[in-house]
Amino acid sequence: VQLQASGGGLVQAGGSLRLSCAASGRSFSNYAMGWFRQAPAKARNFVAAINWSTNSTVYADSVKGRFTISKDNAKNTVYLQMNSLKPEDTAVYYCAARRTSPQTMRVTSRGNIWGKGTQVTVSS
Question: For residue 58, what is the enclosing H or E element?
Answer without folding.
Answer: strand 57-59
